[in-house]
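Issue: copy button drops trailing tokens. Both records pasted manually instead:
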Amino acid sequence: MSIRYTERLAEAGIEPSVASVGDPYDNALAETINGLYKTELVHRQGPWRNMQDLEMATLGSVDWFNNRRLLGPIGNIPPAEAEDNFYAQRDVLDMVA
């Protein structure tokens, strides 16, 4: 499957976005988020009675992570607020131009 996938990407002129063997950098962010999810939610708050309970807890965790978590490097505001501020500033600059 991997060979056919690589060949199909080459036919389409697409460069694969995967790291070389032993190179951890391509998936570092995804691995970090997955590890945080498993450590902070799945293992710490489990065991879970059923999949629905885990799914609901996951939704709550994602909501907290994006909308209520205060992130120091961006001024102790939630990521969603920082994103809103970014687009509001960009819209103002577009109107000025």
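Record 2 (pasted manually too):
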Amino acid sequence: MKPATPTWRIAVIGAGPAGLALALQAARLLPGADVTLFDARPADKDVSGDPRTLALALGSVRALQALGAWPAAAAQPISEVMVSQAPPTLDLPWAAGAVHLRAADEGVPMLGAVLSYGALVACLQRAWFDAEAREPQRLHSRFGQPVADLRNPDAADGTDGGGVEVDAGIAERFDLAVVAEGGVFADQARKALTHDYRQTAWVGSVSLSGATPGLALERFTREGPLALLPLPPGADGSLRAAMVWCVSRPADAQGAEGGDTVAALNDTQRIALLNSLLPAQAGSVLAISPLKQFPLGLNAERTLVDGAIVRIGNAAQTLHPVAGQGLNLGLRDAAELVRALRHAKPGDLRPLLRRLEWARGPDRWSMIAATDFLARSFTWRWPGLPALRGLGLAALQALPPLKSALARQMMFGRR
């Protein structure tokens, strides 16, 4: 059978989870598209050992399963999410200041899943290389080739020349370039919307005793949110959880170690403090891994689209981890972009991308606004604010339809 004549030339820049997922979806759903994947790291670099933790919503898990790129054996399903507040709070006679979202209540097998960054990227990369081997005439990898420049060229008459030029050692013309290289807040060039939350996220893992299997916890403390995400059991069957512990970063510390509560403690003291902050459902923290720290902030573009360039994931918006939705948002961006391209031609690109921008707006901006509001609220020292936050959690728990709507939005985004 003669290969289809390519109708699109698409450059995907960044072979992280969002970029790889987009490239795979384009390979599957756009049979006439020529897809080139660029990344600065060499193809033979082993990424499987990267221990960073990802929390994926059910919608993201299903999308990756459909691509044949879901490492189920390396993932721990989330059966329940508990959001609560460390004292002081306001517990009412008819409801405690906590929200419980359960997969069983929503009629789904899981609310999402937790796995390591390395396990997911290695699985996605294998799937991409397999697809490339089947169709080398239209799927191409450019690992070890960082993109030095990316621009929308102008025609000779000064109008939009169409397409985009990607320079990775030599300039090439593509119909569309999707930027999926994000990075972390501290290393990024500042975008149109930016705010330093003056918080540090300490990340690592803990060993637990008496924890509820499959339970993800978000605990609001005075300094910031503390999250425990269930991990697959250890080799000895021990319960483990990934931890994201957000604390205030004093204005004069400039992110240097020694300027916040966690930095000043040894492991024994950290364990003791964690056990004082966490609810009974978390069980007891027995051990803690070495921790890494990251400054937290909002860094977002006003628009996903610039001519024939589209940004997704952290390249479009870096969010506070309070809701754990950054990658899920990027995966939805990727899916909607490929879906929009299925019945379009390159000449339709600019109006198509404008429609996509409007279509993604409600999901994207509601998530940016929600995480920004929550992150900023931890810097407020208003009298009665903790009690008010506890009252809000109690009210949400007491209203099942509203709680179910929240669970559905966390699983699938705003529809």
